[in-house]
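G.,

No rush on this.
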Amino acid sequence: MKSDLFASEHLAQPAAAPGMSLQNAKSVKYAVNGEMLARQGSMVAFRGNLQFERKGQGIGGMLKRAVTGEGLALMSVRGQGEAWFAHQAGNCFIIDFEPGDALTINGRNVLCFDATLSYEIKMVKGAGMTGGGLFNSLFTGTGKLAVVCDGNPIIIPVTAQSPVYVDTDAVVGWSAQLETGLHRSQSVGSMIRGGSGEAVQLMLRGEGFVIVRPSELTEATAAAH
């Protein structure tokens, strides 16, 4: 049988070493030798001797789900084998954490990560209980984290002299050391996202960066369509 479908770049090759790697721009392959963690429902294929178990979110995770309708629902993958992860054909990126690194990521953008990383669901300081995506996951430690993004992300540097204001539905993550707060821009409300009235953005100040996706379509909105 002949087809471009069977081109070598589409073929899943045996893993050269344990851990995660990009299968392609839309999926991550993880060679499991022990344990790893992934977003529930993100596994699209596996082979080998693997066991999957739902993992609890804790009180912070349950609170986030109650407030925003979102949550970092995780599953543990244990054993020896290979598993592939993807989410709604989003673009996948792997972040390598070194000692001292800390990154805040929106739960909807987490795909999978090494069990050596620590994560904690926290409420964004200064953001109160208003808006979407204001409960985020703080990742620290050593290891790799795979994130998924609608389209190609925009990385915006943040400085103490130039704070950045981002749509809460578009933000993917930011440097954990940044100061956060809410910014209300009522005068431009009718020009942002086609809405009207008061617009609220997440303000980020300090030294670091913020990751923004070129899409404000939430999964709930997408499901409605």
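When you get to it, here's the other one too:
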Amino acid sequence: MIKKLRVDHRLLHGQVAFSWTSALNADCILIACDAVVSDELRKTTMKTAKPNGVKLVIKSISDSVKALNSGVTDKYKLFIVVESIADAATLIQNVDAIQALNLGGTKATDATRNISKAVNITSEEEQILKELVADGVDVTIQMVPEDTPVPVEKAL
């Protein structure tokens, strides 16, 4: 059962590892990120950051889609974390079970504009978010579980 899909450019860190995992009562975290799969240092860092008693799985985006659609993840209370809005959109478009997206943090760059405390988007990402909302996906901005979720359309 997919508990939440979250975009957070930092992937697995304190907020994700403890606050969100606990609030969701998740027993498995799926890091879906092509760059991390081949980066042994990042994988090792994430393995040390995961909460005790919670399974951590790191897969590419395409392997994540296959696993989510195959049913092998159905036994878990799954928390999925991706690095980018584009990766989240790919999962949403290819996995029917995902109907909501949490925006937690995206990096500020010269090409982005700030739409909330920790969410910065490019014009291409804004278009992706508008398309997801138009398709009926519940897209919210929420840094920590204690915050009130803000519908992304209010921030765009």
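The radius of gyration is 15 Å. The chain has seven helices and nine strands.

Enjoy the weekend,
O.
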